[in-house]
Write a structure and sequence with these properties.
The chain has about 240 residues and is mostly beta strands. The protein has no helices and 20 strands.
């Protein structure tokens, strides 16, 4: 298993919806051919932060004091080999999504800064492209030429969009074309809620590794849950 060391700094970033001085982060398993993993913080192998996280798993947000942390990713219920060894610098009031991405041979941590600002009248949704080998994509309203997120490359976020609450279905098209790689199931987006839609899996994959949409609920009005582990598995219609 490849050992990878990544130093990730975030000085000067501001999270607009910060309600406290702590940082928040969550972990996403988006490497399609990597088995279930444990996540270890600051070498505390006796008490993993997360255990047996499967591909497409999206953890809860964790609230921690700002500062420097080391995160290691290892096979579930093992201490070696270390697949990812990442040093994270987490800032006060900032929320981060830390994803294990790419295929196993090139597994790479990618960090996204979240903006979980609520809009009481609308839903807010973000798209992140985490499907290795899939070209840049446009995210359109299904069956239309209306582009919501344009030309998003692997490993990138299309940013956030504010949309009226309602039921939506999206096509992921090869950027600049009408060739549809996948169509999501119906997404019921509620006002005063923030969502992320991830593309995970392989364009020509099958079974658990097939190209798929994974959806997380990132923020809801208090009191509420910030994110749900494994909130994924929205049905897809694949088009070849």
């Amino acid at each position: 298993m490849k050992r990878l060391l990544a130093s990730l700094g975030f000085a000067g970033l501001v999270f607009s919806a910060a309600a406290n001085a702590n940082a928040q982060f969550r972990v996403i398993h988006a490497s399609p051919d990597t088995p279930a993993v444990d996540v270890i913080i600051n070498d505390d192998f006796s008490s993993p932060l997360l255990q047996d996280v499967p591909f497409t798993g999206v953890s809860n947000f964790f609230s921690v004091p700002a500062g420097a942390y080391n995160a290691k990713v290892v096979p579930a219920n093992q201490t070696t080999p270390v697949a990812i060894n990442a040093n994270l610098l987490l800032a006060d009031g900032v929320s981060y999504s830390v994803a294990a991405t790419d295929l196993f041979a090139n597994i790479t941590p990618r960090v996204f800064v979240d903006d979980n600002t609520l809009d009481s009248a609308n839903a807010r949704v973000r798209f992140i492209h985490l499907s290795p080998g899939t070209p840049n994509v446009d995210i359109n309203l299904a069956g239309t030429s209306t582009t919501i997120f344009g030309n998003v490359a692997f490993g990138d976020s299309g940013g956030y969009r504010t949309v009226p609450a309602g039921a939506y279905q999206f096509d992921a098209n090869v950027a600049g074309t009408s060739t549809t790689a996948l169509t999501t199931g119906i997404l019921n987006l509620e006002a005063n809620t923030v969502y992320t839609v991830y593309a995970m899996g392989l364009l020509n994959g099958s079974g658990a590794q097939a190209l798929q949409a994974v959806v997380s609920v990132d923020a809801v009005p208090e009191p509420g849950t910030l994110a749900l582990l494994g909130l994924a598995a929205l049905s897809l219609v694949r088009r070849r």
